[in-house]
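Section 3.1: Structural characterization of target chains.
Under the original work plan, the team committed to producing a structural model for every single-chain target entering the pipeline before any wet-lab resources were allocated. The record below documents one such target. The sequence was received from the expression subgroup and is listed exactly as submitted; it comprises 229 residues.
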Amino acid sequence: MPPPLLPRLAIDDDIIEGLLARNEGLSHFWFFRQGGQQQAAQARPLRLTLIHNEGDFIYMPRHILQALGMRTVIVPWCRYEIDRDDADITLVGPGPGNPNDDHSPKIAGNMTIVQGLLQRRRPTLCICLGHQILCRALGFAVEKRRVPLQGSQEEIDLFGRKEKVGFYNTFAAKKGETTGEFAVSVLPGSDEVITIRGDRFSGFQFHPESILSRNGCDILREEIGRLLR
């Protein structure tokens, strides 16, 4: 009787080499390291409020941030109160929904949250849906893509360096003429705003926490450091 197929494949040198090569392009945090990422010693750990927008992706940045030694609390968008948020940074998370649907309580609620954070100059990091809401609040148009980017790894220019990151979006902000005092980068070959930086805020259309974001842990850590400078 021949040996089972899978055990033989598991020790095949060509297959092992192919899998390692494939995984090299994926997140180093999720594949290769979970420890040794602690932030530099501070008087107290950084605290982040993570706004849950009905997308369970939010638990992945929480895990990364906790591995970095930060403290997190997840708050559903409908229960968030800006006057009670005393965290160092507020992260407006990803989730399903049409960012232009102001009749949606979630979208309208997020617009109020983001506008309030901007007005108070609170350090704010927005991801995916949060990024789209941020862009709308700053005056950018947000449009439905002809073809969604769902589970797509793209190489982008992240403010001067190349990064491979994961996208899961149906809508995208358009650069247009609205840049103001912001620094933006666009998806190669398009006018889609995929990152934005301003005084005390940042937005990522991609998911730094995704397994498709090769250096997502470092991207999160560095952006949090920038917001607090």
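The mean pLDDT is 89.
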